[in-house]
Amino acid sequence: MSERHVETETPGSDSPHRRLPASPASFLLTFRKPLIILAHVLAFAVSLMFAFLVANNMQFRRDWLVEQYPFLLLFFLAVKLPAFALFKQYRGWWRYVSISDLLGILRASLVSTLIIVAIWFTVILQIPTVRGALPPGIAAVSQGVFMADLFSTILLPAGLRMIIRLYHEEFRTTESLRLKRFLIVGAGNAGEALLREIHRMPVAQYDVVGFIDDDPVKQGTDIHGIPVLGPVERLAEICDDRNIEEIAIAMPSATHQQLRRVIQVCGGTKIRFRTVPSITDIASGKLRVSQIRDVDINDLLGREVVRLDLHQIEAFARDKTILVTGAGGSIGSEMCRQICQFEPKLLLLIEQAENPLFYVERDLRRQFPRVPTQPLVCNITDKARVKEIFAQYKPQVVIHAAAHKHVPLMELNSGEAVKNNVLGTQTVADAADRHHATNFVMISTDKAVNPTSMMGSSKRIAEMYIQDLGKTSKTHFVTVRFGNVLGSEGSVVPIFKRQIAEGGPVTVTHPEMKRYFMTIPEASQLVLQAATMGRGGEIFVLDMGEPVKILDLAKELITLSGFRPGEDIEIAFAGPRPGEKLFEELRIEGEDMQRTGHPKISIWKNIPMDRAGLRAGIAELLSIAGGSDPAALARKIKELVPEYSSVSNGPDAS
Hints:
Helix content is 46%, strand content 16%. The protein contains 23 helices and 24 strands. The longest helix is centred in the first third of the chain and has 28 residues, at 144-171.
């Protein structure tokens, strides 16, 4: 006998193409609804049979089996099938049956039984003509049949669904070569949902050993047969006793401090850490609980979601020609992404390094195809090139992110720090003023506060120039100052990750060194928000939260990588490098700070230098920067920035 084939037609073709015979799974999907209805018919028949047996002391007798059961079955089916359809019982996906499905069965059963009883006792038994037309013996049906049928109608369909789910979760699962011993931190809704989805995986990957939760009410209880083993304080001990290999932190609404606590407790263990998606992604259906991912350092050091005045930013950016310098850098490229969300008329990307410019422009075209972009290779100290760009495109908004930022490297190349950070800023700012841009935003750094490095002091001088220019220009010149950003090129996080990948050691400058950290998107968003507030001449300071000890950061990165700090990966102290402080100074409160309407943005109040002295000093500084006398350069910087104090021990020490 030949196999039955299903023929389908390919669009654009005149002849049908054959394909392989339909699999049993596809057959079930094709005829799923008729099969579900048939299953319910069988369940109703069995439940009524069981009800008669209960009412007759579990004895099969001819009087009810032949005379009463067939008629009553037809009557019950005529009522129950529409009632269950009304409650959408033929549309469920049985392998994912839940409490809500069981409640639907309960409602459908109660309603159908009430209808059956009402018709039976008000129509069939009370109207003589109807009763006379029925088979003999019908009137003698025991009332207990109706009650027993109600319970069996609830139990049988519910049981069928649970059997299907049990089959898929317990018997249909294929185990991989070796299951990873898995622990779930958080015995709440997310933890329970994660356990259920792990059980539903077609290929088993995890052996869930237990839950961890600080709630004393939950401890000692079981969730789907998996015990809650104890609080977070006992996490390291439990992992050691039970040979845990992976931990899933199932707390989508947990704060960053709570996540850090879990990691720090497990600092001496060799475990991989995973986390579930955010509660927003889960609720929106964008991601499922089972889509766990590795815990990243951003999860531990990030802060609460920034609240922005999007209407104000949109009015600032939409339909404007916007120019971003340093567009290929970490901050510059993220500024471009944030700006593109508000659909500017044209986005100009200025960058000296061609490869970063190529990649960021390609990335923006892919993510924001509707936003016109123009990549421009340009050295910002080249006055003729900068003038040409401003004359041709006439940008209305300038975001100045280009700068030399690496502190020790700029100590060794102090003239270049001054040329790029001071002369470059002066060149771009003068062009913006000359071509009547409406807004100019310079991105500065916490290292400009009481600077101890060439990089910090050069940025401070650039701040002073911008502030002075803003006093007379029609362009609104503002500066936004913040600290380190996570994941930027040259920052400690990517350096530590490379050192861990190479087997260590991880080099920390000093055990007490602390730094402020902010995520790149958060910093970029707050820069845009501050830009909308500027009226000219302000130096905005962003709230960086609490400083983080670099040694703790190194330990947490090692732990997140599945290693033990000090055992698998060593930590070495290299000592502070030229120009580095142990503590950066950045605060948004105090006598010299003025609050704004945004809780994370303040304005630094200071007394600006007189224009003649400032510009003469900058001109002399730039002439010295072209030579090879670091000591003279440092002395001139000290004149312009009296708070500058070099801590360099390198060749540039003054």
